[in-house]
Write a structure and sequence with these properties.
This protein is an alpha+beta fold. It contains 14 helices and 13 strands. The chain has two domains: about 180 residues, no CATH class; about 210 residues, no CATH class.
Length: about 425
């Protein structure tokens, strides 16, 4: 085998240009496949990260009325849902797929929110527990976080996000200022910011309201203060942070099962029809998989198109091997006259075809990685180099060489030594 490989390299390097042109179809095909697969992998990862929060792995479990999240800004508070106990929260935290969890209440765009007698028309208020910021990945950029003293003393304090700070306070330091929630003054003690993520450019109140047509500023108050502004018996929602992205679906479903134990008998409306209130988890991971499947199925067509280059390259290998057999007819006849068996001649030419395409495959892999980087820089799309794709590409190129080199090798092995020696 080693002797056959040595002879293969000798034959390839003795006709460098011809060998390179023969390998070109293999190189182009492998490079195209590597680039496409790398782009698919990178795009799929970007879809997953963009949709589920850039690696935060959090899944929201909310009380839903049918297909919609219950909103107690407008809806009547049901009397058959118990407040989630610390015992239930501990059970959620003990789920193997859950790293941490937090309970919260929320109101979107309440009518009774003011700063200096100026109504804040676009904001979301959250009543949060001690674990909210850590679970969601927030840091306190200015001021301080809520402390145990704030929760124990029902302190009327608030933390806002950087969007609300830039939009409402217009560059002023918000720490120590007061906002009015349902007629109750809350003192701002801190500004929270996501550890990573997109931050809009907001420099004025006009910018704030323009941006917040689709995204609102956030106000956080201790969950114990919720009843001061709204109603103590409003049901809570939950956010669970999974141990990893692939565990999100199970973490959400198991958390929802525990929370649904707090729903007693089905509540009936004025017409005697049972409501459909239940806790449901977001299916963000499933949405990501659906988008990834769509992306992959679309790009699979490109892989098949790129594979045509491999077919063309294989035909080129067959052609050049037939030429090589013709050129070396006298050599083959001499070897057979000296006692070389058919399988020895067959193995020699098959090895040469496999070595030729393997070299092309390796060059194609390197070219494909380089092409992926170029695509990433020019098109500004992410790429993720796939090790399995590289390994499969090299093996596949070798298989192409063996398959398309088989006919020339059989022709060489079946040559009559007398006719071969007389060949001019």
């Amino acid at each position: 085998m080693l002797e056959n490989i040595r002879l293969s390299f000798q034959g390839i390097f003795s006709h460098k240009i011809r060998s390179f042109l023969t390998m070109l179809g293999i190189i182009i095909g492998i490079a195209a496949i590597i680039a496409i697969v790398s782009t698919i992998e990178g795009t799929n990862e970007q879809i997953k990260n963009n949709l589920i929060g850039s690696g935060n792995n959090t899944v929201k479990i909310t009380l839903s009325n049918g297909d919609y999240e219950a909103d107690f800004t407008w809806e009547t508070v049901p009397d058959n849902i118990r407040v989630i106990s610390e015992e239930s929260k501990k059970r959620i935290e003990d789920i193997k797929e859950v790293d941490s969890c937090t309970l919260y209440r929320t109101r979107s765009n309440p009518d009774n929110l003011f700063y200096l007698n100026r109504k804040i028309d676009s904001a979301v208020i959250y009543g949060i527990d001690e674990d909210y910021f850590d679970t969601l990945g927030y840091d306190i950029a200015e001021g301080i976080n809520f402390t145990d003293r704030h929760y124990k003393n029902f302190a009327k304090v608030a933390i806002i996000d950087s969007t609300l700070e830039r939009g409402i306070f217009e560059g002023e330091n918000p720490i120590g200022k007061q906002i009015d929630i349902s007629g109750e003054p809350f003192t701002i003690i801190g500004v929270a910011a996501k550890r990573s993520g997109f931050e809009p450019v907001i420099n004025s109140v006009d910018d704030y309201y323009t941006y917040n047509q689709t995204s609102s500023g956030l106000i956080f108050i201790p969950t114990v203060d919720w009843g001061i502004c709204f109603r103590y018996d409003e049901p809570q929602n939950c956010i669970a942070r999974a141990v990893d992205t692939d565990s999100m679906t199970n973490a959400g479903k198991k958390t929802a099962d525990i929370l649904n134990e707090n729903i007693l008998t089905p509540e009936k409306d004025t017409e005697g029809v049972s409501s459909a209130l239940e806790y449901k988890s977001e299916s963000l991971l499933e949405q990501a998989k659906a988008l990834q499947d769509l992306s992959s199925s679309t790009n699979s067509m490109l892989i098949w198109i790129a594979s045509i280059s491999l077919l063309v390259g294989g035909i080129g290998v067959m052609n050049i091997m037939l030429v090589s057999v013709t050129e070396r007819t006298r050599e083959i006849g001499l070897k057979k006259a000296l006692g070389a068996r058919k399988k020895r001649i067959l193995a020699q030419f098959l090895t040469e075809a496999a070595v030729l395409t393997s070299i092309g495959g390796i060059i194609g892999v390197v070219s494909g990685i380089g092409l992926s980087k170029v695509i990433a820089n020019i098109a500004e799309v992410p790429v993720a180099i796939s090790t399995p794709a590289i390994a499969v590409s090299v093996v596949f190129s070798m298989v192409v060489g063996i398959v398309f080199g088989l006919i020339p090798s059989i022709k060489a092995a079946n040559l009559n030594p007398i006719d071969a020696l007389r060949y001019e």
